[in-house]
Every structure is written in structure tokens, then in C-alpha cells.
Amino acid sequence: ACGQVSSRNFWTDEDLQVYGTLQGCDWLPRLFGLTQKAIEVFMKKWTETHSKLDRMQLLKDLCKNKHWPAEGDKTGKGEKATDFPQRFMQCLEFAKYAPVFGQDKNNEYCIVPWTDIPETETRTWQEIIGFNPMEGFTNLDLDGCYHLRI
Q: How far apart, in whole angstroms, are the C-alpha atoms of residue 45 and residue 76?
């Protein structure tokens, strides 16, 4: 248990995604030298901040003087993590809108975003997650894939 890291008594789904992403994941490595204590302090601020601009500033502050991890380097330090805020937000959007199997109104299997994209969103699904989610699925029997017949 990491103690209370929020002024609220609960975390939203997004808070959990933020916390997990800061720990490091397949899409975004943990910043070199980012301590558990720093993540807890960050999470307290994150849960109390709601504007996108303020959250981007929190991310900029977090990665100030931080580096990406580097393999094979004695210090473990890679390049400066100046692109961390942008990569972090893209990672969150990918976690939210990742391609998954779903069914349409006719019970046909299809590839859909994990979470419905809001009607107010002006970007395409591809722009949100950073790649074409349908690439690789054309001419593929999704029903057969889902039921492991392929």
C-alpha cells in the first residue's frame, strides 16, 4: 500500500491509469530516478488539478531534470525526458481508447475503442492513439479470432 495519495477517498479510472503509467508500462518506461514518493506527491496534485493546461504543467515539472532510462549505460540515464508530457498524455489516451474486440448491433465482431470516443472529440481514432487501429485487421476473420478458431 502506498498510503493516501489523493485528497479524495477514491480514485477515478483515469487516476489509476495515471498512477500505473508513472510506474512504467509497455508504452512508456518509468523515468530514470522517479521515486515512489515523487509519484505519490504527483498523484496528490493530479487529483486536485482538473484543467488540461495545469496537468501538462504538472507533467513538465515532474520530468524537469529527469531522463529516460538507458540500457547498457553505467548510470542508467538516457536522453533528457523533455518529451515526457506529450508521450505521457498519448499513452493515457491509448490506454483509454486502445483497440479491442467488440460486437456491433448485429452481433458481428469488430475492432472498437476500449472506451467510447466522446462525440465532442474532433480528432479521429487514429489521431488519438497515434496509429491506425484497423491496420492488420483487414481481411481477417474477427469472429474466428475471438473464438480462437484461427
A: 28
